[in-house]
Amino acid sequence: MELLKELCNAHGISGFENDVAEIMDREFKKSCKHVEVDNFGNIIATKGRGKKRIMLAAHMDEIGLMVKYINKNGYISFVKIGGIDDRILLNQRVIINSKKGDIAGMIGSKPPHLQKGEEKKKIVKHDEMFIDIGAKDEKEAKNMVEIGDPIIFEPNFGRLNKNLMYGKAVDDRLGCYALIKIMERIPENIDVTIYAVGTAQEEVGLKGARVAAFKLNPDYAFAVDTTIAGDTPQLKETESNLKLGKGPAITITEASGRGVVTHPKLRGLLVETAKKYKIPYQIDVLEGGMTDGAIIYLTREGIPTGVISIPCRYIHSPTGVFDVRDIENSVKLLIKALTEIK
Ligand SMILES: [Zn+2]
């Protein structure tokens, strides 16, 4: 649990994944002889000695914010990095990763006492919000942070109940964790060569996976990511019937077909492997949202790609909820599938 906590709490908005890459580098080196960081910031660990090349991808970046402007009173305006609903931002605690270190901040809001009529119903846009870092004026604020500094939601990893845990950046540090565990457990003499890639800048256009897939030119690929669990009162079963604790989701198609359409052979491999080894699984047909798989499978002449996702509640918010058993079963399923691959 310590490693999972360390990964979820690490800083890493898109393009600023160094802290996450360092953790992955340290962990991969315990089990893989060859670990490298490419020009783009992807980290790539290699294991196995077979002819067939298989790429595994999990993205290191998380959604967050960036300092855009500091006003004369020392308050900070920001832009969003990645897909964030403005409504979840008010009153959140954030950490600005400045050159001086971690600066605590909070997104201010107007107390209900002072909101009038229509104002109460209005959605406050992120560009009308500000971050309060407790600076007395512009000069003091500019001594603490700079325009362009990355901002994360405050780390908050913890346990909700029994197997349910919560944290920021669960999308996709759970996948990063799974990759580390897969590489740890896969035997050195496996008859395929496996490249586990912690990808950079997924949340802003699947960028790291694109260059890594081109470089590695794998025969097959699997993305390991998170997906939307539908077991909360807000969601209808028709929107998502995935449940926490019921196993990893095997994706059939993402973004109504605009994302990955899982290669039938890999889909078959994952489903058959899950059945054979009695690993619980669910089937995911996603209406919105994509993973690294969507870009890997379009690389070069096309790379057959599958996606395994860990169901999470409240993704792309400051706190996601997941079931640790779904991570363990994702690891199991992929290890078995990798050894079954023909
Ligand atoms: Zn993701």
Describe the 3D structure:
The chain has 342 residues and is an alpha+beta fold. It has 2 domains: 2-62 and 168-340, Zn peptidases (Aminopeptidase); 64-153, Peptidase M42, domain 2 (Elongation Factor Tu (Ef-tu), domain 3), CATH 2.40.30.40. It has helices at 2-9, 18-31, 138-144, 170-185, 207-216, 264-276, 293-296, 324-340; strands at 34-37, 43-47, 53-59, 64-70, 76-81, 93-98, 101-107, 131-132, 150-153, 158-161, 164-167, 193-199, 220-228, 249-253, 282-285, 305-312, 320-323. The protein has an 8-stranded mixed beta sheet with strand order 1-2-12-3-13-16-14-15, sandwiched between helices. Strands 5-4-9-6-7-8 form a 6-stranded antiparallel beta sheet. Strand 14 (249-253), helix 6 (264-276) and strand 15 (282-285) form a beta-alpha-beta unit. Helix 1 (2-9) packs across helix 4 (170-185) and helix 6 crosses helix 8 (324-340). The mean pLDDT is 94. The chain binds zinc ion. Zinc ion binds at residues 59, 171-172, 202, 225-226.
How many separate domains make up the residues?
Answer: 2
Find the count of extended strands (DSSP E, 2+ residues). 17
Helix content: 25-40%
The CATH H-level superfamily of the largest domain is Zn peptidases
Task: Characterize the main sheet.
Answer: 8 strands, mixed
Structural class: alpha+beta
* Mean pLDDT across all amino acids: 94
The helix/strand series, from N terminus to C terminus, equals HHEEEEEEEEHEEEHEHEEHEHEEH
> Which strand-content bin applies to the residues?
25-35%
